[in-house]
Amino acid sequence: MLQINISEQDCWLSSDELCECSDISSALLLELVEHSIAIPLQGEVIEQWQFSVENLHQVKKATRIQRDLALDWSGIGLILQLLDERDQLEHEVHRLKQQLSRFKI
Amino acid sequence: MNFKDYYTVLGIEPQADVKAVKAAYKKLAVKYHPDVSKHDDAEEKFKEIGEAYAILSNAKKRAEYDEVRHHHLNRSQHNYAGQAGASAGQHWGQQQSDPQSDQEFADFFNSIFGARHSGFDSRHSGFDPNQQHHGRQSQHDKGQDIEMEFPMFLEETLTDTLKPVSFTLQQRDAHGQVVEHPKSLKVNIPAGVSNGERIRLKGQGGPGQTKADNGDLYLKIRYAPHPLFDVDGRNLTIVVPVSPWEAVLGTKVKLPTLTGHIQLSIPANSQSGQRLRIKGKGLLSKKEQGDLFALLKIVVPAVADEASKPLWTELAEKNTFDPRASWSK
């Protein structure tokens, strides 16, 4: 059976790799970074930028929403931010409920 | 074949104009978009809405569809009359089920839905209802990306852990039939992975078309619920039951951690709900280790035994403590 070790390289994506994996142009990547939809973890210029796998997921999600709902990028940035907040709140509610259930007799 | 009434799907009248079709689509697309919606059947609904929009927003396809719909409604009414007549003792012969007529209807229906695929391709929406594939075939014929939830026990996240991964790839053969290929790997999951984190296994997704790259496999880490510990970021919380006298006098308890046990000192005069921090006994992150919090829960014996009753009574008589003192302020 094939064994795979996760290397540091697997956790980071260059700008080119992100564009290829999400099927977007580098011009669009610049726009997504401008709207904080993609946030480089390091690097000053596009050639040096490094992204996380999570960023790739966000970019894919953003492009799907843009295509299906025809919204502008600033609107999509806001949607993604609100979706993140919703997920965090749901997680928090779940955690507190679980803790409360442990506290009950 | 099940007939789908696209007007019902979009919640509009058959006379609705293109503007109304678009407005209805937008409203429902926002509600059921799989990236936004929390509805259980969002993916299926969104696909249905997309199909309906692709047909009803295109004048030519809509005219063809209206013809099919008209045919279907007439047929349904006919069948209904047949059933009613039969129940009244009349003989309606083969009108209730005519295989030839059904086949003709299916062929006619397919002739329209053949065109449907060019109008709305579910792959382009990024969602394949047949499997948990959330990727898309890129323009360059790259293989399909696959994402799967990957459960892990909290203990497993403290060290590099070799885990088996099994999934099924779906491919079309030369005849266009979907063929399933089971695939198994062993993946060395690095220590410190967090809940919800995605791990990319490059090239382990669906095979690419003619020399194109394979898709990628994404493992989305999901912590399995733990019987003792609750997770908050990198920190863990454990509820520690203590007796009233332990809370008042203080005690030492053997506290479970993810890696074994430690001795925890509970100070005198502790309160229920008080949190004690044990540094560095939480979950590992790529940079540091979180903390473990012991949350004290004072537990009174369910039934006071005969020997203890006089002691509780004496305590009640001699102690002036009023737990509801703040109410009288």
From TrEMBL, chain A:
It comes from the Bacteria. This is Chaperone-modulator protein CbpM.
From TrEMBL, chain B:
One of its GO terms (molecular function) is DNA binding. Transmembrane segments: none annotated. The keyword Thylakoid does not apply. Residues 82-101, 119-144 are annotated as: Disordered. Residues 92-101 have a biased composition (Polar residues). Gene3D superfamilies: DnaJ domain (1.10.287.110), Single helix bin (1.20.5.460), Urease metallochaperone UreE, N-terminal domain (2.60.260.20). SMART domains: DnaJ. Keywords: Chaperone, DNA-binding. Residues 5-69 form the J domain. The keyword Chaperone applies. It comes from the Bacteria. InterPro entries: DnaJ_C, DnaJ_domain, DnaJ_domain_CS, HSP40/DnaJ_pept-bd, J_dom_sf. This is DNA-binding protein. It comes from Shewanella litoralis.
